[in-house]
Specification:
This protein is α/β, with parallel strands linked by helices and 458 residues long. Helix content is 26%, strand content 26%. The chain is globular and about 75 Å long.
Length: 458
Amino acid sequence: MPKNPETIFVCQNCGRQSRKWLGQCPDCNQWNTFVEETFKPSLQNRSRTLKVPLLFNDISLSEEPRFSSQIEEFDRVLGGGVVPGSLILVGGPPGIGKSTLMLQFASNIAENGLNALYVSGEESVEQLKMRGLRLQISSGKLSVLSETNLDDIIYTADNLQPSVLIIDSIQTIYQESISSAPGSVSQVREAASALMLYAKRTQTAVFITGHVTKDGLIAGPKTLEHIVDTVVYFDGDRHYNHRIIRAVKNRFGAAGEIGVFEMTGRGLRAVANPSELFLAERPVGASGSVVTIAMEGTRPLLVEAQALVGNARFGSGRRTTQGYDHNRVALIIAVLERKLGYQLSGDDCFVNIAGGIEIDETAGDLAVAAAIASSYRNTALAPGIALFGEIGLTGEVRGVSAAEVRAREAQRLGFASLIVPETNRRTLKSLIGIKIIGVSDISEMIDAVFNSKSIPVS
């Protein structure tokens, strides 16, 4: 038991509470994460107020329940625009572009006639001005504030009554009534709860940014993601010019929707045709290069699947993947060995989804298999071919969802042939200007790919 009965130990990784210090958290298995914090018991005997519930059909909505951020890709991720009274968490690693996007968004809102308050706990107002000049932001209606005290921030917002309140970042905000340091579990949780109550009370859209840990999780308690209405993450490598914003939770739209941006000297610029961006540097006539169509939310993306097969120097070959599930690649290699007789056990196999994007669905199996076979045979596929489909353990090719949406995207970009599962081919007969080839197993896919005027590589 701690010396003071009003203290408690809280895990700074997952938020578990304990009356005594623990070396390892029983929930998240992290070591040395328990920190002593002040415990405030709840008030059991406070007065109660009778709340009158409303019938669902009696609830009225305004004519325009959403307003635009003036950034089309950001509106797509949010489900069609910003919902008043919502609390939105924007997460990502340091330097990825969270503050840049939020400053551009606040400026657009201000220029559109709405009040916007940008609160920075990490930069002074002079530093915000310098960054705004670099981004060529000239909105005179944008209000900025450098403050970390949550009570002062809410008091200022109550007087200003903005339509949008931006907190950058949640890890720097603190409440005086809580003794722990800013960024701790208690501070982050209580600050998010207070901002949620403020958003619902005033119908103000509140955006908070949060840093992520090395494991890719929001720094602070996992319960923070349950408090907010929407969680969007910045994906992408900082070494690439493009950034991907992905909605992992959205109470007002589809989860999994993405927006694609390009980082420029003037900030983030929305990319209207991301498929063209990902295929811009695809080599012509190179073995091991195959185009597939992946679904990100409701958007189809044409991306390049690359494979390199080479002789291993020591015994069994390595299996290295980037952008595609390692276990799926191992399964595909096993099917190629068993069903087609490819001798890959002694070869190194490297698989990469070009452009830094990650595919988290099985529809890319067919393209990965074709890329491995192309590199193994040192034969390039004929230009203008794209593939999608799932591969089973017996070598069968299974159908995937949204086949027509994928096919129309390939048609729009001028692809001549599309190799798809046979079950999906039946629904794609109406497409004009593109040849649809249906395959039932992996051997049929290999015959279709390498009998379409493939290009031997010297």
